[in-house]
């Protein structure tokens, strides 16, 4: 059987940081309120003219360097975003062109904050069939462009950034490495709890992010824990056997409550939401890149990924690094 093995990981954050103190100058909020409710202290914001594909290309190059591969080695790009450069073509083809790749295929995928796990599962399935050999799986977002900067209930929560993984189809067992399982879910009955109030076919405009924060919070922990239990049941793994829990970074309280409910030890939880805010589809690969770069996630480690977001969509994956 073919397994999709992680060969490299990389990320990119725009240079400009926006702190809670900066936000307190813009809307009626405070560092204390934001930290207490969300755990967020600062977030990165893309420069004028810096678009999602720019962030994605930086992250992809970093992942390729980490893998010791060149763009020529890549024959598939699956890019998760809800903030594409343009309505079309896909941001993934801009990344492909930016990297100088002219073979294979590149496309976008949209599942809001769950986008990266959806993209990972999609890439894994393409690689397992033998259709492609090496895939860049990218999460890249510029949520700053869809924020209503006068709405304190949403503008304090999000940031910009990108992260990428290189996945390679491997025929021979490499000590059980690779994507072991993935579980994707959605339930469109919740579509109006977290959405953008504009779009091509409805308003012919871009619109702003709108969210019923309490409603999202109310559903989050249950959905997250359910889909993780699915991953544990499919593999026989558990809170005790995983080495790292790398959740979507939306809110510190959601992450902590999920870990407690699942019985995952706090020292196994990778947290970046304090530094990045919620970067939607980029948050998991950004956190993976951080924990890989500082030596926490090592070859052979069992890594649990989880996300939940607009739709609602929610998803989990287990990866032997
Ligand atoms: N600064 C100061 N006060 C604020 C702010 C702010 N930035 N935002 C809201 N408030 C006020 C509200 O107006 C309200 O005031 P009122 O009581 O006078 O009406 C008060 O604070 C409490 O507001 P709530 O919305 O009830 O606050 P809550 O404790 O629920 O926290 C939060 C809000 C942080 C948004 C929380 O609901 C939450 O984290 N929800 C999940 C949101 C999330 O993580 N979304 C993303 C997940 S999915 C994805 O990643 C796309």
From TrEMBL:
Catalytic residue list: 113, 248, 278
Catalytic reaction annotation: malonyl-[ACP] + acetyl-CoA + H(+) = 3-oxobutanoyl-[ACP] + CO2 + CoA
Domain of life: Bacteria
Start and end residues of each Beta-ketoacyl-[acyl-carrier-protein] synthase III N-terminal domain: 107-188
CDD domains given in the database record: KAS_III (cd00830)
Localisation per UniProt entry: Cytoplasm
Sorted UniProt keywords: Acyltransferase, Cytoplasm, Fatty acid biosynthesis, Fatty acid metabolism, Lipid biosynthesis, Lipid metabolism, Multifunctional enzyme, Transferase
Transmembrane domains' residue ranges: none
Entry remark concerning the domains of this protein: The last Arg residue of the ACP-binding site is essential for the weak association between ACP/AcpP and FabH.
Assembly with partners or alone: Homodimer.
Family as reported in the entry's similarity comment: Belongs to the thiolase-like superfamily. FabH family.
Protein name according to UniProt: Beta-ketoacyl-[acyl-carrier-protein] synthase III
Gene name of this polypeptide: fabH
């Amino acid at each position: 059987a073919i397994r999709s093995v992680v060969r490299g990981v990389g990320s990119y954050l725009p240079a400009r940081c926006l702190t809670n103190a900066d936000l307190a100058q813009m809307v009626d909020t405070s560092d204390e309120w934001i930290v207490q409710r969300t755990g967020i202290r600062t977030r990165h914001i893309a420069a004028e003219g810096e678009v999602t594909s720019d962030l994605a290309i930086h992250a992809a190059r970093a992942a390729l360097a980490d893998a010791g591969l060149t763009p020529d080695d890549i024959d598939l790009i699956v890019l998760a975003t809800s903030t594409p450069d343009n309505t079309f073509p896909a941001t993934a083809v801009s990344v492909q062109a930016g990297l100088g790749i002219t073979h294979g295929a590149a496309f976008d995928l949209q599942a809001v904050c769950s986008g990266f796990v959806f993209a990972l599962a999609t890439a894994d399935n393409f690689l397992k069939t033998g259709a492609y050999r090496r895939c860049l799986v990218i999460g890249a977002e510029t949520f700053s462009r869809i924020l209503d900067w006068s709405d304190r209930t949403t503008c304090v929560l999000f940031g910009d950034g990108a992260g990428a993984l290189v996945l390679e189809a491997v025929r021979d067992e490499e000590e059980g490495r690779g994507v072991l399982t993935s579980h994707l879910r959605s339930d469109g009955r919740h579509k109006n709890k977290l959405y953008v109030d504009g779009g091509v076919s409805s308003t012919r405009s871009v619109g702003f992010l709108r969210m019923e924060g309490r409603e999202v919070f109310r559903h989050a922990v249950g959905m997250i824990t359910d889909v993780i239990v699915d991953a544990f049941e499919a593999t026989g793994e558990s809170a005790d056997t995983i080495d790292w829990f790398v959740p979507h970074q939306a809110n510190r309280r959601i992450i902590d409550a999920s870990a407690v409910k699942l019985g995952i030890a706090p020292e196994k939880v990778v947290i970046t939401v304090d530094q990045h805010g919620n970067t939607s589809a980029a948050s998991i690969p950004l956190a993976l890149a951080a924990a890989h770069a500082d030596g926490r996630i090592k070859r052979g480690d069992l890594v649990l990924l989880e996300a939940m977001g607009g739709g609602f969509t929610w998803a989990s994956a287990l990866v032997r690094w």
